[in-house]
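HUMAN: You are asked to prepare a plain-text protein record giving the amino acid sequence and the backbone structure tokens, both parts labelled.

ASSISTANT:
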Amino acid sequence: DRANGLGWMYRYNELCAAYARAQLTALDDGIAHARRLFAILREGISDLPGLIVQPEPEWGQENGYNFVCHLDPAAYGYDGPVNYLREAIVSALAAEGAPVMVWQRRILPEFAPFAARSAYGNGSPWREFDSDVDYEPAQFPAALYHSASYFIFSGLRRPNPEQMAHDIVKAVRKVWDNRDEIDVDALALNADA
């Protein structure tokens, strides 16, 4: 969350390309497997108060990369900052062995290259294009709320078996069944990081 500039890293060699190409032959089966694990998770936790589980869109099929959830603090029964609740839930789920994480706690406009308007140093690219674009984070309330309220279950794909999804369901249900015992303020260690 502390980038100082923007850049690219295009480092790929022939061996990596050959391996990636070979993996493409298993892509459809891998996505189907991940979608089965996602379905188990959706069926097992969609009824929990305050937990927003994303449905698979009717217009397409998800790729099964990461299972994203959001929190609704009011429905959960919490009236503090959503990011405090999120960090406490993530800590509790991790303590139960669930593969849970938060990928990014800040939105891009909060990163130094955008806030300072100096992505490539010395004001570039804004100086070249005479841009007056403003990256004040408050202009992006939906992104701010998303970054404060989401978490991810990762690893729901091959080689992990369907049992992994069932184990995550058990962990989530255990945390929700015992939510009155969660000390949000004590567990919200990363909330303001």
